[in-house]
Every structure is written in C-alpha cells, then in structure tokens.
Amino acid sequence: MDTVQIVPLGGLGEVGKNMTVYECRGEAIVVDAGLAFPRDEHLGVDLVLPDFNYLREVQVLAIVLTHGHEDHVGALPYVLREIRVGQVLATRLTLGLVKSKLDEHGLMNATELREIDPNDAPLELGPFRLEFVRMAHSIPDNVAVVLETPGGRVLHTSDYKLDHTPVDGMRTDVGRLAELGNRGVDLLLGDSTNAERPGFTPSERVVGEAFRQIIPLRRGRVLVSSFASNVHRVQQAIDVAIQTGRKVAIVGRSMRKNVNIARSLGYMDVPDDVIVRPQDLEDVPPHEQLIVCTGSQGEPLSALTRIAYNDHPAVKVESGDTVIISAKPVPGNELRVHDAINRLSRNGAEVLHQEIAPVHVSGHACEEEIRTVIGLVRPKALMPVHGEFRMLAAHARLAREGGVPASSIVIVENGAVVELSRDGVRQTGQIDAGVTFVDGLSVGDLSDVALRDRRRLSEDGVLIIVATVNGDASSAMPELIARGFPESEPVLAETREEAARVLRELLDDDVVEMKLLQEHLHDAVGQLIYERTRRRPMILPVVVEV
Ligand SMILES: [Zn+2]
Ligand SMILES: [Zn+2]
After folding, report:
1. Which of 313, 342, 344, 516 lies deepest, with the highest CB count within 10 Å?
2. pLDDT for the residue 544
3. Which of 488, 526, 527, 520 is nearest to 505 (CA)?
4. What are the helix and strand counts (H, E) for the chain?
5. Pairing between strand 479-483 and 222-225?
6. How confident is the model at residue 293, as a pLDDT?
7. How far apart (Å, rounded) are the C-alpha atoms in residues 92 and 116?
8. Other CB atoms closer than 10 Å to residue 288's CB: what's the count?
9. Are 230 and 262 in contact (CB under 8 A)?
C-alpha cells in the first residue's frame, strides 16, 4: 500500500530546531533545518542541532525552508556539509538570508538554491508534489508547505499567525487554506507554540501604533531592540524615526546584516539619508537619534548588553533616554534580560518592555486562530508540531473540539516514525533523534560526560589530588589543589588525611595499578567531600610514580 513516513527530527517537545523528514521509498523531502540555542545546562556549547544522521540513509531530494528564523534554517550549513541535498527551496527573503549564511560557511556551491513563490505551479520532486501557501508570521515571506505524497495530502503550516492587517499586506492566505480543505487534507502538521493561549494574537501593526505613541514624546535617545529578523518591526520603528526627524543607527552585526539584505531585496524601505553610522552618532543630538539594535534576549556579547554595561564603543545611554525592548525573552533568557533592564535603568534610561507597554506581539497563532485554521482545512488527522509537550497537547484538544477524531491525532516526540496511508495515520517506530552540539569549531555529539564535567566545574569547582608513590611502595602526604571550590581549611586537611589513608591501605594491599589507585582515591575523596560540603566538585586524582 502507498504510504509516506514522516519523521520529526526536531521541534517536538521543545521550542526550536525544527526539522521534519517526509520519506517515500528512500526518497525524502525535508521541511526546515533549524537550530536551538543552548540552554544553561549546555555549558560552553555554542549551538544545538537536530541529530540528522537519519538523512544519511535516504536520498534527500530537497530541503524546503518555510521562513528565515534560525530555528528553521540555522542547521542548514551543518547539514549541507555532511549530507548530499538535491536542492534547497525557499522564498526570496529566506533565500537571501540563507545565501549570506552559506557564504559565511563557504558553502555557496554545496547545493542548488531555488527560489519558490506561493503563486508557482506545483513542483514535482520524485514521488512528491509541492505547493506553498502564504502565511503571516514575525518575518516576511513565510510559507506553509502542501505535500502531495503517495500516502495522502499533507499540510505543514510552518509558524504562522492570522494577522489580518500585516505591515506588508501579505495576509495568511485563508482562501487557499479553505480551498485545500475542499480538496481534502489527510494530515495537518500545525504550529502549536501558542495553542495554550486564549484568543487571538494581535496584529504586528499594534507595535507600530505603540511606537507612534511612545517615540514622538521622548526628549532623549530612543533605542529599539528586537530580533534582527523582525523586518517589519524594524521598519515600523524607522518609519516613526523618519516622521519625527530622528536619524537611525543600526547597531549589532546581525541587525546590520538583516537590514542590508531586506533593503536590497525590497522588503524594507529606508532612505539612505536617514541612516547614520554608529560612530557618527556623537555628531547627532540625542533627541534626533533612533538606535535599532540587537540584544533583546540579553545575549552576552550583543549590542544592548554592551550598552547596558557601558561597554559599547559608539552608543551610551543616560538620563532622559528611552529603551524599548521589543521582544519577549525566550524561556531561559529572562534573567539576562532583567539584568540588562536593571543596568539600563540604573544608567537613567526609561526601559519599556512587553510587560508594561504593547511593544511586542507574538508571531504565533493563539487558540482562536488555530481553531479557524482547523475549521478551514478540516484535516482528517493532526500531528501537532513546533512546541513543548503541553503545547502539542493543547493543540490536540483544539483539534478534537474542531471535529478531528481523537484516534486520528498523533502526539509524538522527536524521532517518531509516523506513517500516513489511505488507512490513516499511526506511529510505526522510533529512531534515535538526540541532539548534535556545535562546540566552538567542532561539530559532533559531544558526549554527555563532557557536558556533565563542565557543569560540575562551573557549579562546584575542581579538586586535584596529587599523590606520589615511591618505588618501595611508600607514599608522601598527597597534595591538594582546589579551584572554584570554597575550600575550608579543616575539610581540606581532613581530605588530605583521608587520601593518605586510602593510598596507604591500597599500597599495603599491593595495589599498584595506576588506574585502580586513581579510582579508589577519586571515590573515597568524592564521598568525604560530599558528606562534609554537599558538593560534588570534579575530582582529578593524579598519581605520580617516582
Ligand atoms: Zn519557529
Ligand atoms: Zn518562526
């Protein structure tokens, strides 16, 4: 019987690193190749990628990128480095952003890059036929993917909201969604991010209105910090700057890059004479400045964080200035954002953020919008994607209430093998779908041990025991070196004696194997330290033979 296997490699049970494989007889279409930003427990890791080893076993006809957010495109360079990919399909802006990324990685020739448009005729690729539907989101040029497969018709929504008044006028194409519903959709993979939130997500225009209320009344500098990819947000801030006679400085590498790409492709309209270079701001009176910058997540090296720490070469804030943080902290970043707000406030700035002013709206559909899409599409089955488990479950509930039978809703985790056929949808297997870490220059599945060690080092420090064993099996008093571990003298003295005692015992028992000596020292000292201090520093026994 004709079937298609759907394997989500990322984005389920989490927010981030979205990647879904559609496979039919060894040929595959991949929708998105996203990354996740490391959480605090991934110490020292730069990026987290989906584990895409599964792609080694299939022929990847194409990777379709729904939109330019990092959680949908960020893993692409790492995938292209290891996997043969027939082509990468993306809309114009997404392709522009991706090209600049691939260029930085020296991968411009790794695959064919092909621009797609929602108005294109359906695209035949192996056993698949693809169409695209325009969906509104917090970055322009976002599309849903319709996959005609031997197992049935699938609609993969991408991230979306039903913004009826988007800044560029490019609404979610509800007409196409309804038409698809009439044709019959066998399976819907839908964005679950805001499925727990009642009501509707406000239009992006609401933020522009807030900017128009706030900025003209300000007497000092105005800084607006948002995601660099939120092209319309930045455009709306710049529009108000133009209306109020402020010059605009674009600060932060990713902000400059995205604004350049968006301007050159016609997604932003900013006259050259409005822009000032950050280093020329000192020639502009504060009340004629609008600074658009990165750092809305409190990222340590970002422009806003450096400004908050008085460490930015070109921008400072002082009493009378206003900082608008036009973003919501991604879970895990709250403390950093609060720290930035505190420091900016201490420097005298008034800081406006989403909790006290309507300066941010989500890019994801809330309950009523999800209900609307389910009502238009009338899917026979649902697989909620893009979200933590609770969000997937909330999406499933909305679908049940919308008439999708509970038996046709599959809530699965990353690595599930889900089969769609004329008989419906069901999970048939599970593959490994862990994570791949990018750590500095190396990519790989950095072992859990290394991460655990880093966590210990950061929390409890390190204790090095240097034991000297003489040729006649006698030993000197071991030396202890403690770092990052609040060593109290009595505990250290006791630890030294314990190490000496254990060593003496082992040598008396004729244990001379270096590895065993180290293991016993490690365990005995670790236990003592834990009993005395409730800490687990990393313990490194070094046994030296003389
Ligand atoms: Zn996303
Ligand atoms: Zn997105």
Report:
1. 344
2. 81
3. 520
4. 14, 25
5. unpaired
6. 96
7. 7
8. 14
9. no
The per-residue pLDDT for 481 is 86
Using one digit for the tens of pLDDT, what is the confidence trace for 228-284?
999 999 999 999 999 999 999 999 989 999 999 999 999 999 999 999 999 999 999
Predicted pLDDT of residue 443: 60
Q: Which of these is catalytic: 51, 191, 239, 460?
A: 191
Please tell me the distance from the alpha carbon of residue 502 to that of residue 479, in angstroms, as a whole number.
Answer: 14
What percent of the chain lies above the pLDDT cut of 70? 95
What are the residue ranges in the chain where pLDDT is below 70? 39-46, 439-453, 486-487
pLDDT value of position 440? 52
Catalytic residue flag (residue 364) = yes
* AA identity, residue 297: Q
- Contact call for residues 11 and 414 (beta carbons, < 8 A): yes
What is the pLDDT at residue 441? 47
Q: Which ligand sits nearest to residue 94's alpha carbon?
A: 2
230 CA distance to ligand 2 middle (Å): 10
> What's the CA-to-centroid distance between 71 and ligand 2, angstroms?
7
By DSSP bridging, strand 479-483 and strand 442-444 are unpaired
HEC secondary structure over 304-348: HHHHHCCCCCCCCCCCCCEEEECCCCCCCCHHHHHHHHHHHHHCC
Catalytic-residue membership of 520: no
State the amino acid at position 118 in one-letter form. P
Tokens of 412: 């699965």
Please answer whether residues 257 and 100 qualify as being in contact, where contact means their C-beta atoms are separated by less than 8 angstroms.
Answer: yes
Angle at 38 between CA 33 and CA 39, to 5 degrees: 135
Residue tagged active-site, from 69, 364, 386, 522: 364
**Residue 452 and residue 63 in contact, taking contact as beta carbons nearer than 8 Å:** no
- CA dist list (Å): 100 to 1, 43, 103, 289: 43, 28, 5, 29
- pTM for the complete prediction? 0.82
Give the per-residue SS3 of 470-529. CCCCCECCCEEEEECCCCCHHHHHHHHHHHHHHHHHHHHCCCCCHHHHHHHHHHHHHHHH
**Amino acid found at 326:** S
How many other C-beta atoms are found inside a 10 Å radius of the C-beta of residue 148? 18
